[in-house]
Specification:
Elements (H helix, E strand, L loop, with lengths): L3 E2 L23 E8 L3 E9 L10 H5 L2 E3 L2 E5 L5 E4 L1 H14 L7 H14 L11 E10 L11 E11 L10 E5 L17 H5 L2 H9 L4 E5 L7 E4 L3 E6 L2 E4 L11 H12 L4 E3 L4 H9 L3 E8 L3 E10 L2 E4 L7 H14 L10 E3 L2
Parallel strand pairs: 1-3, 9-10, 9-16, 13-14
Antiparallel strand pairs: 2-3, 2-8, 4-7, 5-6, 5-7, 6-18, 7-8, 10-11, 12-13, 12-15, 15-16, 16-17
Helix pairs in contact: 2-3
The structure holds pyridoxal-5'-phosphate.
The site of pyridoxal-5'-phosphate has 14 residues, from helix 6 and strand 15.
Length: 355
């Protein structure tokens, strides 16, 4: 399938690279492709960035049949524009599609479409240290039908947003509240997918935690409220004495991050003892009391590595590594960002050149 390109006649002014923040600006173009039952996915095109016209009965607005992805394009010092493991995002998008009864997309084609869109808007990939172009692919149901059934008509779109350095003043450890009332996902549900509903239902806990002075919540399993799952919209790692632990993905209630997967591969490459297993809050508290909880961090595309400086479990406040970033967290951050921005040799073959 060939991607038709219609270029904008009214390019927008570029934002100040020092004040990008996250998700505040969108580029000149977007990718769109339609699905209609009987025809399959068709008419891939890059067009000027513009609103969608949606019927008020469009199913996505009522029943949230929607999936999305998130990845970034990075500008290297030599002028290359690099993607990080984009094929993994498209694999995950299809896993989300399957769970949400959305027809699968052609993964290799979708990666090519993303590359083409980034090439068209390549001047929007920011240059300043730590900045990047956030890529948001998403698929949603457009059938004008107030009835609960899988859609027959959908749109696959990709938009781009230049984003700032996540930590302009260096890696900043965050305070995390262990959530004991609300849950994010349960076994058999949609926790392993990137679907809008997962995020709508997380807002309440996030709001409560913020009012208590915490940046994010640590989610526990939805049944026993005992085992650690994720931190906010990041996966979580704990550095114990002699073992690095991250919750296993077995239950299907955890989103399998590509940053998580990459951290595990790098740690193994360094010869670290990494376990994907269940880890309970009691075990964490015990490790902390015995001085064996050395570091904790979240992992995700937006922040890459987000050190955890404080964990609050009920009334107990645990300060980790004196509230400072740990050695392993820093080394992982430097290695991952080094590969992503093309400053370090890409020994795993993870980056994909766009231009
Ligand atoms: C996207 C996401 C992650 C991190 O995934 P990455 O591929 O590393 O960006 C983790 N948890 C949740 C809930 C997410 O939505």
């Amino acid at each position: 399938m060939e991607v038709k390109i219609e270029r904008t006649k009214t390019p927008k002014p570029k934002p100040d690279e020092g004040k990008l923040g996250f998700g505040n600006y969108y580029t000149d173009h977007m990718f769109i492709m339609n699905y209609d039952e009987g025809e399959g996915w068709h008419d891939p095109r890059i067009v000027p960035y513009a609103p969608f016209a949606l019927d008020p009965a469009a199913m996505v607005l009522h029943y949230a049949q929607e999936v999305f992805e998130g990845l970034k394009a990075y500008r290297s010092d030599s002028g290359d524009i690099l993607l990080f493991r984009p094929e993994k995002n498209m694999e995950r998008l299809n896993r989300s599609c399957d769970r949400l009864c959305i027809p699968p997309i052609d993964e290799a084609f979708a990666v090519e479409a993303i590359k083409e869109l980034v090439r068209v808007d390549q001047d929007w990939v920011p240059h300043a240290e730590g900045t990047s172009l956030y890529i948001r692919p998403f698929i949603f149901a457009t059938d004008a039908h107030v009835g609960v059934h899988p859609a027959h008509h959908l749109i696959f779109s990709v938009i781009l947003s230049p984003v700032g350095a996540y930590y302009p003043e260096g890696l900043n450890p965050v305070k995390i509240y262990v959530e004991d009332k609300y849950v994010r996902a349960v076994k058999g549900g949609v926790g392993f997918t990137k679907t809008g509903g997962n995020y709508a239902t997380s807002l309440k806990a996030q709001d409560v935690a913020e009012k208590l002075g915490y940046t994010q919540v640590l989610w526990l399993d939805g049944v026993e409220r005992r085992y650690v799952e994720e931190v906010g919209t990041m996966n979580v790692f704990f550095v114990l004495d002699g073992e690095v632990v991250t919750p296993s993905l077995e239950t299907g209630s955890i989103l399998g991050g590509i940053t998580r997967m990459s951290c595990i591969e790098i740690l193994k490459d360094w010869g670290c003892n990494v376990s994907e297993r269940r880890i309970s809050v009691e075990e964490l508290v015990q490790a902390y009391d015995e001085g064996r909880l050395l570091e904790a961090f979240g992992s995700g595309t937006a922040a890459v590595i987000s050190p955890i400086g404080e964990l609050r479990v009920g009334d107990k406040v645990m300060q980790i590594n004196r509230g400072e970033i740990g050695e392993l967290s820093q080394k992982l951050y430097d290695t991952l960002t080094g590969i992503q921005w093309g400053k370090q040799p890409d020994k795993f073959g993870w980056t994909v050149k766009v231009n």
